């Protein structure tokens, strides 16, 4: 498979779509081209297993797992302090493994939070303006040892920017340095304005004007209209989280527990799309 050498020639959604269709296993590496003078270029890695996103390694900020669970009320302060103490003592295990092994958090809750964290890391990479592209075909890396279910195509493809939404390449004479480079290289030529073909959008709401497709889907998963306020989003999430939390279905059949755990993960991901 031949991939473009620059992210500016395509979109991350198109790259992931091609790798998904080929059911490829390996690592997609994006090297930032616009690092400050004297700084090492950042490398971001997206790990794939049979075309599905199984892990993301990036220097871009994402909330730690313990803080993510504490913020949503699934991890108390004593448990968070115990986790930090373990990490401070040099425990080499990932935070999720520590939380489960020490019985500080429910395994289903930890898995749902890991999926939310993975989605947030991937969302940050979609904001990259340009990067050098490389792909390394290999077996799944150690990052998949967390044993969380990879992100599904609806998590990393549906609603993402695609090259077909842009002006055809024949209509663009050349591209110059992205706007972000201006902060580091004041003398760099400014990027040309490129006209985008915007798809039809729904009516506006407080989240975005007009509301993006990803947030429209997230609101639907919470059972809310597009005009819902942030407080309404929080109340709806709390209600569903209490209803679907694994601790409330300990004695339920395995199929019911699995269905509720999957629904809980979807609700958590939708919530973070709207308020994170």
UniProtKB/TrEMBL annotation:
Entries under Pfam families matching the protein: DnaJ (PF00226)
Gene3D superfamilies: DnaJ domain
InterPro entries in alphabetical order: DjlA_DnaK_co-chaperone, DnaJ_domain, J_dom_sf
Basic and acidic residues compositional bias, start-end: 190-200
Entries under SMART domains matching the protein: DnaJ
Domain J: 217-276
Superkingdom assignment: Bacteria
UniProt region (Disordered), positions on chain: 184-210
PROSITE patterns on file: DNAJ_2
PANTHER family, A to Z: CO-CHAPERONE PROTEIN DJLA
Entry protein name: J domain-containing protein
């Amino acid at each position: 498979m031949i991939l473009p050498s620059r992210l500016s020639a395509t979109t991350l959604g198109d790259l992931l779509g091609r790798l998904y269709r080929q059911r490829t296993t390996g690592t997609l590496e994006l090297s930032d081209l616009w690092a400050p003078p004297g700084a090492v270029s950042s490398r971001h890695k997206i790990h794939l297993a049979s075309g599905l996103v199984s892990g993301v390694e990036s220097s871009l900020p994402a909330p730690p797992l313990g803080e993510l669970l504490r913020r949503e009320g699934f991890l108390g302060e004593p448990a968070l302090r115990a986790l930090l103490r373990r990490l401070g003592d040099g425990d080499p295990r990932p935070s999720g493994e520590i939380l489960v092994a020490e019985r500080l958090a429910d395994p289903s809750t930890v898995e749902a939070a890991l999926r939310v964290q993975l989605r947030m890391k991937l969302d940050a990479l979609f904001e990259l303006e340009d990067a050098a592209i490389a792909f390394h075909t290999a077996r799944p890396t150690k990052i998949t040892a967390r044993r969380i279910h990879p992100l599904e195509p609806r998590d990393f493809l549906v609603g993402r920017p695609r090259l077909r939404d842009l002006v055809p390449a024949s209509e663009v004479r050349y591209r110059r340095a992205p706007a972000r480079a201006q902060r580091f290289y004041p003398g760099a030529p400014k990027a040309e304005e490129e006209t985008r073909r915007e798809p039809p959008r729904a009516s506006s709401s407080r989240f975005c004007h007009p509301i993006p497709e990803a947030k429209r889907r997230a609101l639907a998963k919470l059972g809310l209209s597009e005009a819902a306020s942030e407080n309404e989003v929080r109340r709806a999430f709390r209600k569903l989280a209490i209803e679907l939390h694994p601790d409330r279905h300990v004695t339920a059949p395995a199929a019911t527990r699995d269905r509720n755990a999957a629904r809980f993960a979807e609700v958590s991901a939708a919530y973070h799309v709207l308020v994170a």
